[in-house]
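Pair request: fold both.
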Amino acid sequence: MKIDNGKGIQLANLYQRQQLEEKQGGAQKAAANKTAADSLAISGDAAKMRELLQTAAQPPEVNTARIEELKNAIARGEYLTDSKKISAAMLAALE
């Protein structure tokens, strides 16, 4: 014996109607979003950060001739350093 009061059909219809409304509402929202223009504003800090990152990504200039001179002088034992001059320059760089 089957008892059916019709509420099962009503619930199914309600669910289908809700799904249809969600689809239509989503399409309307998408259409509204298409009409609005997207824009992007970059702050001065962000632009400066982008510039610094681009600069940091570039390889530094290298004086290969000077490097070879120094390597050869070190290898021959002719490269002399002045520790007082080096320490003074290091301390000056910290200030």
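--- second member of the pair ---
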Amino acid sequence: MAASCSTGRRVALALLMAIAAVGCSSKIRLAEVGGTVTKGGKPQKNVWVQFALAKGGRPAEGRTNGEGRYKLDYSRGREGAPLGTHRVTVMTGGDIDAEGNEVTPRKVAFKGEFEVKSGVNAIDIELP
């Protein structure tokens, strides 16, 4: 009997921690982030743009369209990136098949640092 009580407490504790984690991520203040990725002045399509807070945490990510434009998503149903200083990485590759699986590895094309402020952030990136 003691073992099942202990197991029940562990399950309850795990559930409480999961609920708390979901609640915390929904309280993070996000700002809209988007822009254009170019190389030699030409828009770059299908490249990944990732913003990761310098202090750590979940990154926000987006992929450029045919005009080289991107918009970041933080989590399912939440667009934007948290406020603060971000390490920004632009990557090529990462092609996705019909089932949604990434079938080619990503390669880093750019690394930099940008500040995300409250409101709308238009951050254009020129690749070397």
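Observation on the second member. The mean pLDDT is 87.
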